[in-house]
Design goal:
CATH class of one domain: Mainly Alpha
CATH architecture of one domain: Alpha Horseshoe
Distance between the termini: 22 Å
Largest sheet: 2 strands, antiparallel
Shape: flat
Structural class: mainly alpha
CATH superfamily of one domain: Ankyrin repeat-containing domain
Oligomer: single chain
Radius of gyration: 26 Å
Helix content: 40-55%
Number of strands: 6
Length: 499
Amino acid sequence: MQTELERLRASAKKLKKAFAAGDDDALRRLRHFVPEPKAPRHADFLFVIARENGHSSWPALKFAIETRQMTRDQKAERLKMALYFGQTWVVRKLLDQDPTLPEHNLGLQIATYDLPAVRRALDGTPSAATERIGIRTPILHLAYSHYIHMAPDRSADMLEIAELLVAAGADVNDGYASDPNSDHRISALYGALGHADNMVLARWLLQHGASPDDDESLYHATELGHHDGLKLLIEFGVSTRGTNALPRALDFDDVEAVRLLLAHGADPDEAPGEHPSGEPITTIPALHQAARRMCSAEIGRLLLDYNADPQALWHGHSAYAVARIHGNEAIAGLLERRGFATKLSRNEAILADCVTGEAPPTPLDLTTLSLEDRRLLTQLVWRPRPTGHLRALVVAGLDPNETEQMGMTPLHVAGWEGLPEHVAYFLTLDPDLKYRNAYGGDALGTTIHGSEFCPHAASRNHIACAQLLLEAGAELRSELIDECGNEEMAEFLEGWRRD
């Protein structure tokens, strides 16, 4: 017997077939929800069926049907994950279906700011404040919840829950190991500040003794798209040493973040060493980072004002050479005007010539090329730029499958960044679409993940990248759809699977 979901999918196929046959009613129904479709895909017909059935999207309709078949335990687990990953639409759907679902366990009650329930639980069993629920303790369930963005008016309840937990023995410096194979623990402060972008709880934690020096929060405070977290950590005396926060701020050409960090004592030429935790510190001089991350001359001047060394070498290159190799005319021009231009080596000159998009007359000497230079394609592909530059480097001898530190190939980086022109180019070079990087993702999985978590996702086109990969033969595994928190991407993938 046909299931409800199968019936609705069949309706979408019927609508698609009628539209292709020129049926006026099919055209009217489609254009009511998809104005002026030039070449509608199956996802558009699924969308129409979803809207006609009272849902905002096909994933929302599919989710509503699937959850009716879930056990209460399964729904509770799904709610937990949605709160953790900030999948607001999933949280709303689950709570609309069953407002009592957080009663399943204390972790959900804490993560949804159910103050009366938490108070009753702790009054009955005070030790519950420190007992793990799954892999996290109660204060971590609070810190890592994105619920603040759904219910900002409940912040007072959230803070009172924090007070109750600490009064019953919870540790504001608690953390958990996100990787079972590592001793590194990520803190409650990072959960609130860097993971959930919850500045209200982050301030409370710091006021109640949380250490700002948790090896995570300052670095990730530069990624939030605002400076509130950065200013908060500076207010509480965070150390910049060994955090790589300054190089990360330069990744975003963020003048204000760079200024705040330098004024707080960040060393633009921090020497490699050992962090107090015992971990080795890996650094890059700030001028070199500014050059390769295409920062502005304003940032270059700021770094020089804070005594960045324009003559420092990194992987054998001066900051000027790095600027030329990456095509950063702003930093190269600044250094030239300040008298810090350096003579380029043969390989440096060839790499710099490739910026124009013209294939160099002579190839690179690969035997003397540093690992950093061999990885140049992964360093360049992260931002929109003419593909001619990338093509010229491949002609010059760079391997288009050379990976960066975490095993990401240029294709993976292009997919993560949502740059279809770059994805299309690297697909012409016959890459291994099944290859997995150190995060466990293949090219398609990395692209789908980027549609949710890439800092530039709003201005990029991850769906076009996914389509290119699928057309090239990438495997669309069911879990890629099931675990996708981006509604639009999930709808596209669902439509592709049924095309």
